[in-house]
Amino acid sequence: MLGHCHLSQSQAPNLSDGIYHVIILGIAGLVLPCAITQKIFNRYLTKNNVCFSFGKQKESVPLEIKLPSDTVVPKEKITYVPPVIKNDYTDEYNARIAEIKQEKAERQSAIMCAIHEYTTHRMAEFLSKDDIATLHENIEYFAHGQCDLYKPIRSKYDNPLSSPDIRHFVWNIGIRLSIPLEKCAEFIKTIFPHELKDATVFYLSKNLRVMTTCKIPLDIPLKGEYYFNCLKKVDN
Description:
Layout: H1 2-48, H2 93-123, H3 129-143, H4 163-177, H5 181-191, H6 201-206
Helix pairs in contact: 2-3, 2-4, 4-5
């Protein structure tokens, strides 16, 4: 009896140890799958940006990307925005255009006055008073391109105009009106048909400025000027 009891007591510790090991292994067997499951679940939540707040998916917030201060932006992607102009610099445009037109009109009027004065001064000895008046009308038509209104005239029998005289005269006024040489030739050919009956328009246009002995010399103006040298007053 004593021997049986002694055997049971010696075996009790061994049984406890076995149960303890089984419990440890069981716990370890439960913890490891839970850890693996939690890791997989966390990856899923992170990848899909899932939030458990009210069962809704968390909206993704766009990231603000700031370029470094020295980043070069391509020119084709730069949109130019003109600065706001407080003052309208074109306010005086119309007024200035009007001034320019007025200045041109005044200069043209001054040129025509000089030409008419020159015409009377230079042509009086070669034309009658009526023909001088007609010549002035013709010059107005000439200046305004109204060639269909030209009227023919003729110089005096006792003091006629030569071809070089007429050519020089029309060149002197044509250069001040900026009229082409061919138009000048057509003008004198029409209004002086008797004196220039043997000359063609082509010949006249090529010889308007030919210097030769005649009564009416060339009167070449200074650049940008229109005054006639023969009308300048000589200081005493």
